[in-house]
Amino acid sequence: MKRGAALPIVLICLGCVWLLKSTALLPSTATLLALLLFAAGVLLLALDGFNKSTLVTSPMLAYTGAAIYAIDQLGLRASHFAALGMVLMGVLMLVARSDSIPERREPPRRLPPRDD
């Protein structure tokens, strides 16, 4: 019987992180978080396409990542980024209301609907 590959993959990932951390090659936690948020925004837009949902979510994820990086690395004030982020989110939400922006499409169902 074939077993799942989850445990070996987790062990490999944890070992790589431990190795990078012990050799001081792993960036700080704030930098990693900033990179992950920025990458999540780009990946969400690439996978889900351009629609009303990703018009707001993707730029905000990328903005949050950039703000965390700027606050941590450049020492800028978080209150400025919070205020600018609220303005950016409001503008994006207003633009998303436009009829020219397509609605989010539903992913195809893999299971047949249940009769409850």
Automatic annotation (TrEMBL):
Keywords: Membrane, Transmembrane, Transmembrane helix. The keyword Membrane applies. The chain crosses the membrane at residues 29-47, 54-71, 77-96. This is Uncharacterized protein. It comes from Chromobacterium sphagni. The lineage of its organism: Bacteria, Pseudomonadati, Pseudomonadota, Betaproteobacteria, Neisseriales.
